[in-house]
Design brief:
By secondary structure, this protein is α+β, with helices and mostly antiparallel strands. The protein has a single domain, classed as Roll (Bifunctional nuclease domain), CATH 3.10.690. The chain is built from 5 helices and 7 strands; from the N terminus they run βββααβββαβαα. A 7-stranded mixed β-sheet has the order 3-2-1-7-4-5-6. The chain starts with a strand and ends with a helix.
Length: 148
């Protein structure tokens, strides 16, 4: 992946009638990715470090990564096509034979869940970041309303 990147983070999670709105961004701009209800709950659990009785799918993925000597280096939200975001997991494997990297196409919601589970950096392509609508004020309003 050779495009310029902007580092972002999860700035807020809001339950909606159709699932969850995940607000991601930085001090410059925040944008929203809509995810299904179960994914929103999973991301929220990882952010809040909720203990689970049994491993969920993303916990299983983390365990498989660990067993295979694979680490998640970062996730990158790469583009928006037809109102659908695309993302990639950037993985590193290091063993006696050396070090190798792999990029894997994945849903942004899965990427965000894994990044939150492992506290790994989240990036967005700079061109995409420039093109998305800034939702910072909406997130501030939601946070204000929740405080009242």
């Amino acid at each position: 992946m050779n495009q310029p990147l902007v580092q972002i983070e999860v700035r807020g999670i809001v339950k909606t009638s159709g699932g969850y709105a995940i607000f991601i961004g930085n001090s410059e701009k925040v944008f929203v990715i809509q995810v299904e209800q179960s994914m929103g709950q999973i991301i929220e659990m990882f952010l809040k470090k909720v203990k689970k009785e049994r491993p969920l799918t993303h916990d299983l993925m983390v365990n498989v990564f660990t067993a295979l000597g694979v680490t998640l280096e970062r996730v990158v939200i790469t583009e928006l096509k037809n109102n659908t975001y695309f993302a990639r997991l950037v993985l590193k494997q290091e063993n006696d034979l050396g070090k190798s990297f792999a990029e894997v196409d994945a849903r942004p919601s899965d990427c965000l869940a894994l990044a939150c589970a492992l506290w790994k950096p989240i990036f967005v392509g700079a061109e995409l970041f420039e093109s998305v609508e800034d939702m910072s004020e909406l997130l501030r309003e939601i946070n204000r309303d929740n405080e009242e």
